[in-house]
Amino acid sequence: MNQLVAGASVPERNNADILAALNNVAQKFAVDPAAIAAIIHSESVWDTRCVTGSYIGLTQVGPDFVESLGLDTSAFLNLGAADQINDYGRWLAYYNYSQQMTRYSMNVAAQPIARQAAVLQAVQFSPNGVKWKKAFGQGDYSVPSTLSKQARFLGDTSISDMEAYYTGFFQQHPPSYAGNFGPTAMLARAANALAPAAALEANAGIQAAAPSQDKDAIANLIALGSDISSLNAAQATAAQRLLNFDGEIYPSDGCAITLSVLLQKAQINIADTYLAFDLGNKLKGRGWTVVPVGGQQAGDVGSTCGPTPHHGTDHIYLVLKPVNSDEMLIADNQAQAPHFRWASGKGGKSPTTFFLRAT
Fold it and tell me: Is the pTM of this model over 0.70?
């Protein structure tokens, strides 16, 4: 389970007890602590004394639950942030969160943090609701968790709409985990020179013999991109190389070099490449075949490039897992952890024009 150490809008000062509480509750209920932090931000923006009608505190709990703690409104509002977060764990237990996730086959821990946050938000709105939970267990995220709209930014309160909001939230408030290279750490390392490449290889835990063909390295490539620590190590290496190459500050213009480093770590012998357009051509030159959009699979490389380079819209990334013909879990330079992207460009991204596959 990830251990949150910063980010996700958690207050920056005197936050040790807050982080400990977030990690404690997250571990008990098999969710990412950043997902809990995200709904706290949405519900109260970290105001322990927030009151909205009869709902109070960081996570806006109701009067019945407060009474079950043996407290009144005033006493609960006087609790510190860490205590209220720990009480949120009691609130989840009060509504049998774990049992309900099991009952409706909702493997929340396996979801990206934006979707986890959307689930917690839906539980916030409808802890005893059934329809949206049944739908989620069947892979359908379109069922609203409430009969009426709530905050405008949460759309129709379906998992899909709320996940879209939380995806943007985590882009603005990226979480940092124990052992994670966040943007600040990356830039500090770039300024002071990173450890030798061999040390980063060891940090990522990569020990693999050179495969005879690129396709034999794809399983290792997927594993590297899926693991936060090895992805962050690759991103840190890419940040240093990008800075040395043209003075660019990562993650700007860092997609191609990030994927280059991941390919190298997977023992695919490709030179450092700094343009998405060029990297796609190099892979084609190694025998990677073009796959049309909609036919992508894990291990494919997605490209938004056209027939000529176009700075600002060209992008290249690694597909870790397709959800359907459009949505994918990917790894690139744009997030510190695997995240979701749509081939169609949903969410304001450049649409993918083709995929490449090692064959």
Answer: no
